[in-house]
Amino acid sequence: MTENTTGAPKRSAHKDTSLTRRRALAVTGGTVVAGGLAVAGYQAAFADTATGTEATASASASTGAASAGESCMQLMTSVTEGPYYLDGALVRKDITEGKSGVPLTLRLTVVDATDGCTPVPGAAVEIWHCDAWGYYSGYTTANPGGSAPAESEDGSTADDDTYLRGYQIANANGVVKFETIFPGWYTPRTCHIHVKVHTGGEKEDGTYEGGKVNFTGQLFFADDIAEQIFTLEPYDRHTGTYTRLDDDMVYDGGGAASGLLTLEPVKKKDPSKGYKGFLTLGVDPDAENTGAGGGAGGGTPPSGAPTGTPPSDAPRPTASS
User: Fold this and answer.
1) Is 93 in contact with 266 (CB distance < 8 Å)?
2) Which of 30, 58, 115, 266 sits 20 to 30 Å CA-CA off 278?
3) Which pLDDT score, from 0 to 100, does residue 68 have?
4) CB of 216 within 8 A of CB of 78?
5) What residues pair up with 221 in beta bridges, in sequence order?
6) Is residue 86 scored above 70 in pLDDT?
7) pLDDT tens digits, 42-69
8) How many angstroms separate the CA atoms of 243 and 302, rounded?
9) How far apart, in whole angstroms, are the C-alpha atoms of residue 242 and residue 258?
């Protein structure tokens, strides 16, 4: 499947088309799968917070991890990078730039699915997503559908070319952590975060250069949690028809294997306090999948997609932005 817009061309050098399905990345959630590697990934990602049930599960995982092999991960389909990708995102943990919304701590663990799901230290994980009203940096004139205030009315000091975009470099356990906000939505898509996994490059001038993209995908949120968030400020100022997971053009219903995040509330009775989201990403370091090439599984741009284009002379994001 593919994500596209009507009249909203991307400003990267890539074409916005879907990818050929291939064995490039595997994803698991917070449940025990063959060899317990999903829980092992959970333990690594939440090493500073694991208690109770989590600690018990991770102990069980450690006994079976060595024999898991390639079967430890469920393979997931790569998808298009979408119409809002921009090169040159900054390496940083906090990508909010003052954008308001429900806090989201995103922890992802990158492992090598071809080598017993061992950690991939140094992998660069890149994410980007819309703000609470459905606007992407670099494309702040694109209509998110429904009824929403203009992006400029949010009152933040965020840079219109760089907010809610960034890289993190995996530590020795293959773990990256981002501080961001819960994304909003735009017609005709469900709530999601875009993700790329890069290897072989290095940090340079505040961004990540060189190497290759091993996987391009999207991360998703359970409908009940998303819809609860969208009743809160500032999300509730964007009204219209929200696309649920079952009706989304990209999410294929495969749960964690299709990018569905496991979410843990910071405070159970107060969703406004935020969530922690996690997923384990199993990458083949020899694969390449940029999210920009053509292939099977494509489609025509959907009707009712966001419209509008950024100014042609809008600056591209740089490390100095």
Assistant:
1) no
2) 115
3) 33
4) yes
5) none
6) yes
7) 333 333 443 333 333 333 333 233 333 3
8) 13
9) 20
